Amino acid sequence: MSLEHRAFVYGGTDHFLAVTEPFLRSGLEAGQAVVAVAQEPNLSALHDLFGDDAEIEWVDAATFYLHPVRTLRDYQALVNKFAPRTVCALAEPVWRGWDERQTLEWIRYESLINEVFKDSGARALCPYDSEALSPRILEEARRTHPMMVTDGPALASGAYVDPVTFGANCDRSLRFSRPGDAEYFAVEDDDLHALRSFVAERALLHGLAKRPAQNLVTAVNEVAANALQHGVPPVGMWIWQDGPELLCEVGDNGLWRPAPTPLTGFIPPDSALQRGFGLWTVRLLVDLMELRAGWDGTFVRLHIR
After folding, report:
1. Given 149, 172, 195, which residue is the final one in a domain?
2. Do residues 198 and 230 both lie within one domain?
3. Could you tell me the CATH number of the domain that includes residue 288?
4. pTM of the complete model
5. How far apart are alpha carbons 208 and 50 in whole angstroms?
6. At what angle are helices 210-230 and 193-206 packed, to 10 degrees?
7. Does some domain include residue 153?
8. Is the peptide bond before 269 cis (omega within 30 degrees of 0)?
9. 269 assigned to some structural domain
């Protein structure tokens, strides 16, 4: 069964309720597992219409949409939890509070939904507030959702871009610059103990708490090991501070070509043996992971606050 993934552009609470209430009721009537993830005051207004007895999981989007890869993982957990029943999900993204790089990753996440859940039989309606969101975000909704809803029936989005092409365009838009005072560490052999110690010391100096510091060390170790195994020497790591963020970048002279799909590392793996498991894990460990591959080599940049 294929995924039904629709964006709903609404204006005001009344418009929101007029479309989302019948959508959720249709899921209940069809025997689907119904989940409502929305922002306030929309969530409370919708909950009031159904009451506490409705078999709906109510989730505040403000606590669910904190990290794109973790949100993708959590939606996958919901789909697996209710299987073999299919899921009917109201899924209102959160677009405020992100910088440009984070916003790009959330846009990419909306596109990835089409690949990750393509055979799930799930129905997803993603509300976009026309009164609060920028024209850029509303336009991206048309590019990441195959179908659009406003007042009438759902219509095909003429702007829709498939996830592979969309992801490639996201990667091409990345621009990496590195400050001149970034510290450098040469990664010359498979013994990465010295690299881990170096990163741990800088994380401590930056004031990272114990858990995020450990996550960063683990992430750098995984990326460096991957570069040593699959990249072209020399391999090196740069680390520097940018405001509240600590950034680590691992680079080598090779040109990374992901296989078997350009979405390797973005798609939740079935097991630790599946290709892409390492990059997927790295994305979960840090606040943001960016990858740029070009004529000058392959560079993986890790952001952590």
Report:
1. 172
2. yes
3. 3.30.565.10
4. 0.90
5. 44
6. 140
7. yes
8. no
9. yes
Q: Where are the alpha helices (DSSP H) in the chain?
A: 13-29, 42-50, 61-64, 68-82, 100-116, 135-144, 163-172, 193-206, 210-230, 277-285
Domain-located, residue 178 = no
For residues 82 and 91, what is the distance between their CA atoms, to the nearest angstrom? 17
Same domain assignment for residues 139 and 236:
no
Tokens of 184: 């450098």
CA distance 36 to 28: 12
Residue that finishes a domain, picked among 172, 195, 218: 172
pLDDT tens series, the chain, 305 aa: 799 999 999 999 999 999 999 999 999 999 999 999 999 999 999 999 999 888 999 999 999 999 999 999 999 999 999 999 999 999 999 999 999 999 999 999 999 999 999 999 999 999 999 999 999 999 999 999 999 998 878 899 999 999 999 988 887 777 778 999 999 999 998 899 999 999 999 999 999 999 999 999 999 999 999 999 988 999 999 999 998 999 999 999 988 776 656 677 787 777 666 777 888 999 999 999 998 887 888 899 999 98
Q: In which domain, by residue range, is 39 found?
A: 4-172
Residue 282: partners with Cβ closer than 8 Å, 6 or more residues away: 219, 222, 223, 289, 300, 302
Selection from 111, 139, 147 nearest residue 5 by Cα: 147
